[in-house]
Amino acid sequence: MNRNISCTVNSKSMTWQIDIRMSLADVLREHGYTSVKEGCGVGECGACAVLIDDVAVDSCLYLAVWADGCNIRTTEGESKEGKLSPVQQAYLETGSVQCGFCTPGLVMASTSFVEQHKGQKVSREQIRKGLAGNLCRCTGYDGVVRAVEQCIDAEE
Amino acid sequence: MFDIDSYHKADTVDEAIALLSKNPDAVPIAGGTDVLVRLHGHNPDYRHLVDIHDVAELKNITMEPDGTIVIGSGVNFTDLAQSAIVSTNIPVLAEGGSSIGGPQVRNVATIGGNISNGAPSADAAPPLLVLNAHIELKGPEGFRRLPLHDFYQGPGQVDRKSGEIMTCLRIGSTDYKGWSGHYYKYAMRGAMDIATIGCAAACKIDGGRVAGIRLAFGVAGPTPLRCWRTEEKAQGSVADQTLLDLVSDSVLGDLRPRDSWRASKDFREQIITTLSERVLKEALNRNGVSIP
Amino acid sequence: MAVGKSVQRVDGVAKVTGKARYADDFTMPGMRVAKYLRSTIAHGRVLTIDTSKARALPGVDGVFTYQDIPKKKFATAGHPFSMDPGHVDVADRLLLTDYVRYMGDEIAIVVADSDLTASKALSLIDVEYESFQPLVNREDILGDDVPEIHKGTGNVVKTHSFVAGGNLEEVKEECDHLIEGRYKTQIMQHCHLENHTAYAYMDDHQRIVIVSSTQIPHIARRIVAEALDMDAGLVRVVKPFIGGGFGNKQDVILEPMVAFLTKNLEGIPVRLKLDREGGMIGTRVRHPFDVKVQVGLDKDGTIKLIDFDALSNTGAYASHGHSIVSAGAAKTHYMYPRAVYSCKAKTIYGNIPSAGAMRAYGSPQMTFAIEAIMEEAARLVGMDSVEFRLKNGARPGDKSQITKKPIMTCGLLDTIRKGRELIDWKRKRKEWPKIQTGQLRRGLGIAIFSYGSGTYPVCVEPASARLILNQDGSVHLQIGATEIGQGSDTAFAQMTAETVGISFDKVHVVSAQDTDVTPFDTGAYASRQTYVTGQAVMRTAEQLKTRILDYASIITGLDVELITIADDNIVIAETPEIAVMSVRDVAVDAYYDKNRGGQITAEVSYKARNNAHVFGCTFVDLSVDIPLCKVTINEIYNVHDCGVVINPLGAEGQVHGGMAMGIGAALFEELMVDSDSGRIYNNNLLDYKVPTIMDIPDLGAAFVETHEPSHPYGAKSVGEAPVISPAPAIRNGILDATGVAVNELPMTPKSIFKYFKKAGLL
Ligand SMILES: Cc1cc2nc3c(=O)[nH]c(=O)nc-3n(C[C@H](O)[C@H](O)[C@H](O)COP(=O)(O)OP(=O)(O)OC[C@H]3O[C@@H](n4cnc5c(N)ncnc54)[C@H](O)[C@@H]3O)c2cc1C
Ligand code: FES
Ligand code: FES
Fold first, then answer.
1. Which residues in chain B are contacts of A134 at CB distance < 8 A?
2. Is B166 a pocket residue for ligand 1 (Cβ < 6 Å)?
3. Which residues lie below 8 Å from residue B165, measured CB to CB, with a gap of 6+?
4. Would you tell me which of A15, A143, B234, C727 could form a disulfide with B213, CB atoms 3.0–4.6 Å apart?
5. Quick one: B205 and B242 in the same domain?
6. What's the CATH number where B18 sits?
């Protein structure tokens, strides 16, 4: 049941032999992208969220074969040359990180939301709706909302 | 790793039909948000797959010259809500679609999968029912079309014959022009939840009187249901509080909510009656009729 | 000054970049996967079990059943060892069982080369059961002639009772009013995002290494040794980053099993990782309570007595068992410490998942009952709910009725006053109609809480720290206390920087615990780390500072009395702006001078013999849509007296997270059991309603600082307490809005529907 897929991960081209029974989360973790966490394995928590062609997807509920030809982004690739991305930085400043297990998924969902709403005025309600696919048990989300707000305000 | 026994990828509808005919045990997988959850639970009915995830011809939303809106079965709920055709002409469907799961689920879950899995809780179903949507399927014998309410046969059961693929959903112009609608999902959480009750209403008003009312509910019976008798009773009524009372008094007669661990029957009935009034009121409001 | 400042978490960058490694992020060549076979009945006996087909499946390394395991029962609660035989945890578990006590009980385990092979092997095991009636409700569990879930117990884990502060019956006679209520709380699940996971391998023929997502590595080491009957020194437990615990990882759940498996498979690495569905039933849950409470008060609103009769269901196995209800009763009595406080408590077994420690350990359940009945009491005497608490709540000078010791610091009344202002209570009270009508109504609610910092004097409170001065003038801090997300590593770094006199970023915390290396500490629980471990960190930091100064004095020839450390330099104590030399230069000399010095280190192991009480409250403004049975929170504030706030940003995060969990307890969460079959309906994150970001409003956290004299930095605790008071405050808000008293949790729409119907609102 093996297949080859070619994709870009955090700007690097990859060709991987995969088993078609694997989820994208399985494949990414196997290749060392361990920021992709598994909290449920069935799309309920968002801990495994990555961006596929800039769209946030729960990689546990996504066949790896579907990533063939796609551009994948994980949290590892968001900080460049030792500099955190604006979303990562905002998470730290607003105290939105505790155990950190939900964080990579939330960072990616937030990144996609911020990129899609560049230059727009957004309400807290919209931010909440945009991050509703990610559970966090530690923070109560208060800082998370402020982190995203801060990033969008900075974009304006 | 998912417990998959055989896997075939299709690039076109015809290829998918051929693959399904050759592998009678196989089921289509589109967004996979339902199929993969079942495989996670080691459900043996989903071990043979025909993958239609990348069939491009299923992903279009178009309007035909006569105003019929055609939505490909492979359209996901994010694209659905962002489509100008949908949001300007049939916003009630965008409301239904936007209430599903969370953003990541909506980015991959398809409207075809939502209807084909036969779930009574499908959030696209009540809006599609009040839009009088028709389903188009293609199989070894060619195309066939049928009204959505006939497609539903029982809990988890739909009228899909072997080898068939749902190609699109069709909404005729007379079913949306002059109509307004509203969908409300009643659930235990604000997101990532299955509806306890889903309610869609659509209405058309002529000179202050009801020219047409359509009401549909999810999780109020074995399949998503239209409220035929109530709709008939309301026909021609003046659009005022009396109409709302009539509807909320009558609506339970059309439905069959039941007890489950998720919610009791009498609780569901309470929500159904309340929503029938409130959702219709909002639909009327969007048609310029405001009832205080 | 590092203490008192909002510093960035020491592990923050690792976490936002995805570089932080959790237990599942480590793999070893040849690592195998283990999976449990869970029972499909809730109560009964395994008659036969046939594993032959599973064993024959290619890729299967082993299948073990109850027949293969050591027959020594062990206790799993993450408590320190108790030298008092009357206080030891109940040893009622085997690694695998043939007597099934809940649906999902572990009866066999498979080890295979992959997850999929293991699952396939499980499906090939044939089991034949003899089923008994599941005992789920208290009536059934305590009925006559019912089977005993654990032999010789009568299905009771333990009972106890106490009366503190006076003669209950006499005071009852004196009260103007006696009111009664009965309150029930639900089974909750912690739902930390990282499931339980552990792996183990052997270093030689004897030594077992376990890497586990645990709050209590040192305790886990002892319990593994007990369960496998081996020396603790041969067990090494490593705790990497952990994705939350909330008490569920203060229990030794997977570690003895992985140790057993590797030991029986020639030391190959074996990983046992629970999936969400298995974890939600097969780890621990919050004890459901059924509390009858009586309150006596005078006409003027003075509370004279609080009398409880509390029943707690610990489920299939004792785990933390009776400690939960007794701790809950003891820690809540500081709220109203001038009243006679009486409690009869009983903990029973039942055929439901085992309950253990969960954030605030029995206090949320007790406080729901207390603050609900206090609201009834305030209304009975016609007092404003806030004034009532201001009149009766703990104030400076009060003492504990139980220990007779004074409460050292108490900011409760100030937190209440602050909360009242934040929510604009007085204005809303005046402007909102007294009796509300219509479909949408608004209400105000308040509830208060008290809690502790650590477990002393019930348990021993040991903590240790080690500091090493590096040649670059930075230090490495090792502690046995565990960072589980609550921010303790950061607080310890702040304390170290403050006391040694170096900058915060010069303190490197070794976040992973390794029982072969890290000094002893019992771990993360009971809101103990800042308070208890903080006392060890301060002493270690002082010792290091003294040693640095002693050595600097040798180098410089200056009298040690004359110098101190500030801003990474050795300075003249009286004129700190005069730097004599840098700490870095001291370190280089100590490391590399050929004739003197040596690595400068410090290590202290310390037992705290104190406990500090924390106080606070929740204020809520909410709306109730009566026909839809829906509660919407408009505004909510938690105000805390947790002593000096070490890291404001971190403390606020603890409060926010606790509030969200409290809102979950109030309005959303319940693990639901079918009482006929014992089946759990909703052991996944779609059906168990952990609040999403859509369900949690903007949260308000505020602090009233007191300076706790028993702690070197004046701190108390803030980890668990924020979860306690939101639920009763929301309950009281619903009462305020609708006149309906909802006396059970959770107050989900389907539950309040029943209450509204009974009250004639629907
Ligand atoms: C976390 C989570 C939350 C969810 N929340 C909601 C929710 O709020 N509301 C809701 O309604 N649903 C929800 N769902 C269910 C599911 O996501 C939706 O029903 C989704 O629309 C299914 O679409 P899919 O493309 O992913 O289906 P798939 O899993 O690909 O397929 C579903 C079924 O339809 C069949 N099928 C798919 N496409 C076709 C086709 N073109 N022709 C014939 N048969 C086809 C498949 O064989 C399968 O039986 C949720 C799921 C998850 C995991
Ligand atoms: S692990 Fe993918 S959504 Fe939970
Ligand atoms: S930080 Fe722990 S789950 Fe979000």
1. 102
2. yes
3. B13, B16, B17, B20, B28, B52, B58, B73, B137, B138, B139
4. B234
5. yes
6. 3.30.43.10
- The reply to whether B261 and B221 lie within a common domain is yes
> Between chains, do C16 and A75 touch, taking CB under 8 Å as contact?
yes
Q: Atom 4 (ligand 3): residue with closest C-alpha?
A: A136
Q: CATH 3.30.365.10 occupies which residues in chain C?
A: 289-456+610-759, 457-607
Kind and range of the H or E element at C412?
Answer: helix C412-423
At B226, which CATH number?
3.30.390.50
Task: Report the run of H or E that residue C469 belongs to, with start and end.
Answer: strand C462-469
- Specify the pLDDT at position B264: 97
- Residue C680, classed as helix, strand or coil, is strand
Handedness of CA C261, C265, C271, C275 (dihedral sign): negative
Q: Which two tokens mark C548? A: 């640095």
Residue B118 falls within a domain, yes or no?
yes
Name the residue at shortest CA distance from atom 41 of ligand 1: B166
Among 2.30.130.30, 3.40.50.150, 3.30.365.10, 3.40.50.300, what is the CATH number of C457-607? 3.30.365.10
Half-sphere exposure of A119 (CA within 13 A, CB side): 0
pLDDT digits (tens, 9 = 90+) for C208-222: 999 999 999 999 999
Reply yes or no: is the peptide bond before residue C457 cis, omega within 30 of 0. yes
Cα-based torsion angle of the residue sequence C693, C685, C682, C253 in order, rounded to the nearest 10 degrees: -120
Q: How is domain A86-153 classified at the architecture level of CATH?
A: Orthogonal Bundle (1.10)
Asked if residues C726 and C663 have their Cβ atoms less than 8 Å apart, the reply is yes
Who's near C420: CB < 8 A, 6+ residues apart? C386, C426, C446, C619
> Of C449, C333, C339, C343, whose CA–CA distance to C392 is shortest?
C339
How buried is residue B225: exposed, middle or buried, by Cβ count under 10 Å (0-12/13-18/19+)? buried
Write the pLDDT tens digit of every residue in C292-308.
999 999 999 999 999 99
Q: How far apart are CA C116 and CA C136, in angstroms?
A: 34
Q: How confident is the model at residue C713 (pLDDT cuts 50, 70, 90)?
A: very high
Q: Which fold has domain A2-77?
A: Ubiquitin-like (UB roll) (3.10.20)
Q: How far is the CA of C408 from the centre of ligand 2 (A)?
A: 46
Predicted confidence (pLDDT) at residue A155 exceeds the cutoff of 70: no
Ligand 2 pocket, residue A133 CB under 6 Å: no
Distance CA B69, CA B93 (A): 12
Q: Which atom of ligand 3 is nearest to the CA of A99?
A: 2
For residue B252, give its domain range.
182-285
- As a CATH number, domain C289-456+610-759 is 3.30.365.10
Say yes or no: C690 contacts chain A, CB-CB below 8 A. yes
Distance from C-alpha of B65 to C-alpha of C745, rounded to nearest angstrom:
57
Ligand nearest the Cα of residue B198 is: 1
Give phi and psi for C647, each to the nearest 5.
-135, 100
Identify whether residues B161 and B207 lie together within a single domain: no
Residues A86-142 pLDDT 10s: 999 999 999 999 999 999 999 999 999 999 998 899 999 999 999 999 999 999 999
Between CA C487 and CA C650 the distance in angstroms is 6
Chain C residues with beta carbon closer than 8 angstroms to that of B3: 116, 119-120
B140 and B95 part of one domain: yes
Of A19, A62, A109, nearest to B108 by CB-CB distance is: A62
Interface of B with A in 108-137 (CB under 8 A): 108
Nearest ligand, CA A109: 2
Interchain CB contact of C117 with B (< 8 Å): no
Nearest one of A100, A109, A32 to C14, comparing CA atoms? A100
Single-letter residue type at C153? T
Residues B158, B60 share a domain: yes
Tell whether C115 is within 8 A of chain B (Cβ): yes
